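Q: Start with the shorter request: fold the first protein.
A: Done. Sequence, then structure:
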Amino acid sequence: MATANVARKAVTKEFVFAWEGKDRNGKQVRGEMRAAGDALVNATLRKQGILVSKIKKQTFKRGGKISEKDVTLFTRQLATMMRAGVPLLQAFDIVGRGHSNASVAKLLSDIRTDIETGSSLNQAFRKYPLYFDPLFCNLISAGEQAGILDSLLDRLATYKEKIIAIKGKIKSALFYPAAVLAVGFIVTAVIMIFVIPAFKSIFTSFGADLPAPTLIVMNISDIFVGYWWIIFPAIFGSIYFLMQLWRRSPTVQQFMDRTLLKAPVFGDLVRKSSIARWTRTLATMFAAGVPLVEALDSVGGASGNFVYFEATKKIQSDVSTGVSLTNAMQNTNVFPNMVLQMVSIGEESGSLDSMLGKVADFYEGEVDDAVDALSSLMEPLIMVVLGTLVGGLVVAMYLPIFKLGQVV
């Protein structure tokens, strides 16, 4: 036992060394090897008949942030290689070396080291909850236990690709109006700070009473000119503070999630997206053989909305007492009739995972249509808002000139 513990500790301290040398035929060769030190690398290679000329310890450069897309790409690559019969440790080596993000390469190297020490794949993933959520780890565990890890990895990669696609569509629908409104605010601020004061100096020389709209715009301009150094940091600071509060405070998350579902334009889109993610996650978990009550642990958080998270907890509690999934979902009053009917048919026919998958496909298509419709609707609305704003400023500044022309 003591010897095994010592060996395990030694493995955890191994490093990656790049080496160059010549084989028995005098041919130049190079490669990489994991070892506790360069002396061990040299000795191992000499036993293989390689005359080493250079050994260098590999260091991982500081890379960028590991995104969900990085994890999804790794999952797809690992699934492909395991289906092709590539050994697990070798697959980690191949993916790690070929990745452009050094942070991902370092993460995969650490996971590979954990697997070498005897940890299972899902145990190695669970050490990094920031990148691998419980749903990911539970599916990997189910695949290892059933001996269908390659199939589960493929299913998991497909699931994550679909979820990323939905998130991307939601973000694209929200990004366009937000970007245009931000540009509109900046243009308005530039006009208020630099253009309006020039008109003000001209109008002051007229010595006549100015129209009310012109006076209002000039007073707003005075505020911008005098307090721009407070206005800009306050606005951008407030947006940043609200986003951080939304991300970190459960109370704010609950309020914002409930408000988004009731929003007149975006509420329907958010609801369809949440249902699509909820059904897709449950279909993936159930198809992998995860028990329903256990699968519901991961489903609530994957929906991305607190209302559906709360509803999932209630569903889990009802199902654990013997209530059917259809009735438990119906009691929450957050799922449309079509979803309830499809789930009911799935329970009766014994094809719940297939029916949930069809519901997810339907609502993912609905999200696509909603994003297209929203984009078509937002473009003219934004043009009207910006036209009214900029046009109002122009008219307010030219009213005194029109009035002066009438007097002349």
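Q: Next, the second protein, separately.
A: Sequence, then structure:
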Amino acid sequence: MKSFQSPAFYEFYSPVKILSGDNALDNIPYELSKKNSSNPLIITDEGVSKSGILKIVTKILKSGKIKNNVIFDKTPRDSSLEVVQELAAVFKKNKCDCIIAIGGGSVIDTAKGVRILVTNRTNNLKSLSGVNRINPSSVALFILPTTSGTGSEATQVAVISDNQKGEKMLFVSPYIYPDMAVLDPRLTVTLPPKLTAMTGMDALTHAVEAYTCTQKNPVSDAFASTAVKMVFSNLMSAVKNGSNKKARMELANASLLAGIAFSNSMVGAVHSIGHACGAVAHIPHGHAMSVILPEIMKYNFKKSSALYGELLLYAAGAEVYAATPEKERGTKLIGFINTMKSELEKKCGLSMLLPSDIFDAKMIKSVAEYAINDGSMLNNPLEMTVAQVEKVLKNCVAK
């Protein structure tokens, strides 16, 4: 085995304070008081509101004498430019001084977008898209993730849809990082099995790509490899029994760790193609990640096989790792991922393939052309062409 070589130079930054564990939510009023914040804009969605989670949070805020009368629970599945602009106006009208996001990736990205607008004193969010184009913010942002996959509670990235143009705008800046991530089993126990599976596979993809992309470094590797271990050890348990608080907490922590990892080392082609599947074909992100991950691992195998082999230790454990010849470990990891995908399909119906009724030749070409221009492609271990992306997609479609 080759000895690890650190890059000649790397940066690592993770300023988010983490509260994780049973009753972590109860600390929010105190943490808000430390930020001199008492009038939050609460952003969530209808699913969270109906699940009872919102009621738990507002009760805790009330007990801490924090206002909770400005609540928006209509966040769409994909964060949109229109909703962000609407909520920025609500924030200003009600003289809010902080934002609390309770939900999954769309809710979190919406909250990040609102903070960008109110901080930069503009109504033109599109003008701020890209890398390092926003200003520091004095508006506290607390993230309460109700899924265990996006890792957005600890990233410097936001993705917001421009529905008129059918595009997803990317925002990247250290000023996007939230102030605090709060992980509490009460936030995720109601997540249905299929969504648990999809978000878990998203977290796994973040970790695998962070560990193998071109900007990897020793610190991000530590977070990514630990996340891989936690996903493999707990995802099936959470899918089988959603009330398993231990598994839920481990997955929440895995998602957080993977988010910290990829926010510093970035992701690759799996996410480029996944972003395109969402934008062009409206495939749920976690489903796309689950399907595409093993195929891109095969594509990158020539360059990344040794790194995949290292991750086998975290995915399968020391006994399997030691019993597997070094040259076979990378292939073994891909096999373990495919086996888990098959088990997830049986347990909760998460399909192992993309739907053929949507992914005809025309759609495959459109998705491939979109994907090749996605920024994550820059960090993939091997370059890809449109034709190569099309080939990968064809392997991912149900026959």
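Q: Describe the second briefly.
A: Strands lie at 17-20, 40-43, 71-72, 98-103, 130-131, 140-145, 157-162, 167-172, 180-183. The chain has a mean pLDDT of 95.
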